[in-house]
Each structure stands twice: as structure tokens, then as C-alpha cells.
Amino acid sequence: MTTTSSDSVIDEGRYCTHIHSKWCRAFDCDTFVFWSSAPSNLLVGINQRLTHATSADLHRWLRTALPYMPDAELRPAAVRKFDVLRYTVVPRADALTALDTSPLPSGDYGLFRVGDYERDLFGYAEPVMEAPEASFERYLQLSEKYPDSITRLDLYTFPPSVEQSVRLRDNVCFITGASPDAELDLSWIFPPTWAYLLDPGLNPEACDYKPFLTASNACMMRSDLLSLFHANAFGIDVDNDFRVVVFRDTGSVTLPSHVPKSQNSASAGPGDRFLREHFRWCLLVNLFGGDITKDYDSNRVVGVMEELGMCRGDIPLAPIDDERWDSLIGKELWEVLILDAFRDAINLAK
After folding, report:
1. Which of 222, 231, 237, 333 has its CB 3.0 to 4.6 Å from that of 173, i.e. a possible disulfide?
2. For residues 46 and 139, what is the distance between their CA atoms, to the nearest angstrom?
3. Is the entire prediction scored with pTM above 0.70?
4. Nearest-angstrom CA–CA distance, 236 and 263
5. CA 292, CA 297: separation in Å to the nearest integer?
6. Residue 82 · residue 75 · CB < 8 Å
């Protein structure tokens, strides 16, 4: 597969609009953060029309989701073509600070290791992460559809002592402060059934679920919010004054900007620990996993190259009117052919 040289990536790479994955289109993302390797995978995709993240938010969220991420600067970046459906980023402005609370403009950003830029670009791999593939709601649906012997669905049932404690503690909706006249239901914050997911290497049968079977991990919630909360469509950012952060379209349901002060005191509402765990899951489910290679991995690209006669001398190149050149991968490969022919022409002219 043809790739550009390191010099052309840094100095002469083409500016481009990167192709959005199905994941990014589904979330209607307009703000993108790449890790500054070459090629670079998309780390984060955000719909800023819903989420309204600031630079300060994004710095903290990245550290929350990726605690072992090396020190890096968040900088506005230009996305450049590196290979077929692969990209890299170069900085185009100064680093954004972790103290900036102004709205983050939509656009492209890069995470650049602190230090020498060129060494960063070619010398470091991307942060390793285990991003979940589903919300709590989706895990529950899959477990009910494909039951097994290790998933503790029985833990969705509230122990009588927990239910009694929560109902005595909370007489309004924790999220909105809605009065008892509203239709309220009891809800787990981080469902104990999925406690083992906090340790990707942990066998569900070895998990200690008891710390999650507590009133601190439950609250009263307006009934129309339950499905959205367990779908991780929104979460509570405890460390930003209990801001209600929306990640997905909530339809006709309206949410407050923050949990009411009366509900986030030590004597009311669930414990901060479980709200943080729920919010971290929201970040992992809604911000990570949108790289284009999830739709078009290298094997798929090479397969189309072979079909079009770009890999083997015994297979002729497909004619220009072949419909396969009109596919997404075909268009990318046609661009490679044109650029290669252009380079050859220049070399012959020298």
C-alpha cells in the first residue's frame, strides 16, 4: 500500500476532510481528537451541539477515561492524509489549557506528547484503552436475549433494605428535583450486575458485588429518565458542580443543567463514587471508538486493491468505468493511482 514519506507527512502532507465512521455519523459528531502518531487513530468524537464540552472538561475526561495516558497537549490540528483511509495530524495552534472553561469550538484536535513534535509523531504508540461496546441498557438486552450462567441479572432486583433506605432518604427525583407528585422509580446508579466490567480482566464469577448493593448506589428518578440514564445518554459530572452532561439526543425529555443543590449534599441522593463510575462509563461508551478503521480495516482495503488489480501483475488494472472505483475505498485508491502517476511524471521530467 502506498504511503507518504515522513518528510511529506510533516511538511507537504495534504490537508483533507477525514471520512467519518458509521459511529461518528450515528452520534452526529462535529469535534474530533486524534492521537499524534502516524498513522493516527481517532480517539474521541463529540457532538458539541449536545455535550458542550470545554477544554477543561475534555482534559479531565480524557484523564478519567484513560488514567495511564502519557502527558500530552491538546491542540487544534490539521488532519492530513497518510494512507488509504488513514490520517495523521499536525498542530496548527498553541495548546489549550486544562483551566480554560470557555466552550470548545467544533473541529479537529490532536493530543501531542509534551516535547519534540517530530519524535512524538513517529516515536510513540497510541494510549492503550479497553473501551466498552455497549451501554448498561444494551448489555441488559443482550443478556436477556442470550442468557448465560455467569451474568447476575438477579442483582438488578433491589434488596428490601436498600429499597427502604432509598425511599426514606429521597422523596424527589435526584436528577431534576421533581416533587413526589411526579412519577418516580427506584434506580441503580451503576447496576451491580455490571460491577465486573470495571476490571476488564475480571471473571464475573470472581467479582465481589456486595459494595454495589448499597443505598449509596441508588436513587429515586423520574420514570421518563430511567431508560436514558441506563442507556448512558447522559451522566452527572460530579467534579464540575454536578453538571448534567448530555451525550445523545434525549428527544422530548428535558434535563436541567445541573443536579439541584438540595440533591447533591451528603444527606441526599446517591454517593459520589457511583456517580463517577456511571459518568466514566458514559465517557467510554459515547466518546471513544469512532475511528474509520472500525468500518474499513486494512484487510478490507487490501482486498479491494487486489480486486482492482493494484497488487498483482497477473491481474490487469480495472478499467476506469468499473463501478468498483465509485465505492468509498475505490475512490481513495483511485486518488493513490493519480498521485503515483503524478510523482512518476515529475521524476521522469527531472
Report:
1. 222
2. 23
3. yes
4. 12
5. 8
6. no
Could you tell me which of 133, 135, 143 has the C-alpha nearest to residue 282?
A: 135
Report which of 349, 311, 307 is spatially closest to residue 330, judged by C-alpha positions.
307
Mean pLDDT of 196-221: 89
Phi, psi of 111 (to 5 degrees): -100, 115
Cα gap 82→77, rounded to integer Å: 15
Q: What are phi and psi of 113, to 5 degrees?
A: -55, 140
**What DSSP character marks residue 103?**
B
Whether the Cβ atoms of residue 34 and residue 79 lie closer than 8 Å to each other: yes
Quote the cell numbers at residue 41.
487513530
Whether cis (ω within 30° of 0) applies to the bond prior to 39 is yes
Full 3-state SS string of 211-236: HHCCHHHEEEEEHHHHHHHHCCCEEE
DSSP 8-state code for residue 221? E
- In the block, cell 441508588 appears at 218
Indicate the Cα dihedral angle 300, 305, 309, 310, nearest 10°.
Answer: -150
Percentage of the chain exceeding pLDDT 90: 45
Cell numbers representing residue 335 in the block: 486518488
List the grid coordinates of 46.
Answer: 463529540
